[in-house]
Amino acid sequence: MKLLGEPIVLLSFLGIMCHVGIDVGTNTTAPKILMDRLGMTLAEAGYATSLYFIFRTAGCLTGSFFLRVMNNKLFFLISITMMALSMCGLYFGTSKAVLYAAIALVGYGNSNVFSMVFARALQSVPEKQNEVSGLMIMGLFGGTVFPLLMGFASDAVGQVGAVLVMAAGVVYLFAYAPRMK
Questions:
Q1: What's the predicted TM-score (pTM) here?
Q2: Integer Rg of the chain from CA
Q3: CA separation for the pair 8, 21 (Å, rounded)
Q4: CA gap 180, 46 in Å, rounded
Q5: Are 25 and 165 in contact, with CB atoms under 8 Å apart?
Q6: Domains in the chain: boundaries
Q7: What span, in angstroms and rounded, lies between the C-alpha atoms of 40 and 117?
């Protein structure tokens, strides 16, 4: 807990919470949005999760190249910009093409956020890498916090409420970006 007193460690912990929350949130919300807006059946809308993971996998594979040849901060900004565009598509989209593009964008954009935030946290306190690593892994509980908040928001205003909760996570990642090295 003492490590959370280090500003970059705390901010990185929250960044990982947002990353995992957006990841889990997309998997639960995307099919519901497709069913609500396009009248798809659950079986048809379930493809959204596969689409998300296809682009997330592609992002991980290509991200290993981009992280070698590109500035980490720039790649982080590109990734979260893709996620921001995705949130706009999920919020406003009414066509199959726009919604599928939004799901693909969030999958690709979110694919390398964890590794970049995790590495930044480890770099900040090199003498306590084991402790920082354990703390960052605890940030995975964002996968339980975000869906809870998204559920409350979607009950209040529909699926756009859930998208707004994920968008708040993206906004946080934009605020985190200046701390990326």
A1: 0.92
A2: 16
A3: 19
A4: 35
A5: yes
A6: 2-179
A7: 36
| Helices and strands per DSSP (H, E), number in the chain | 9, 0
For 36-80, how does the pLDDT look when each residue is reduced to its tens digit (9 = 90+)? Answer: 999 999 999 999 999 999 999 999 999 999 999 999 999 999 999
Both tokens of 42, joined, read 């659950």
Residue 68's contacts (CB-CB under 8 Å, 6 or more residues apart) are none
Domain 2-179 fold? Growth Hormone; Chain: A; (1.20.1250)
- Residue 69 in tokens: 């040849």
For residue 65, the tally of other CB atoms under 10 A from its CB is: 9
Other Cβ atoms within 10 Å of 136 Cβ, number: 23
Which residues, 6+ apart, have CB-to-CB distance to 35 below 8 Å? Answer: 41, 42, 45
Residue whose pair of structure tokens reads 């807006």 in the numeric block: 37
What distance in Å separates the CA atoms of residue 46 and residue 29, rounded to the nearest whole number? 11
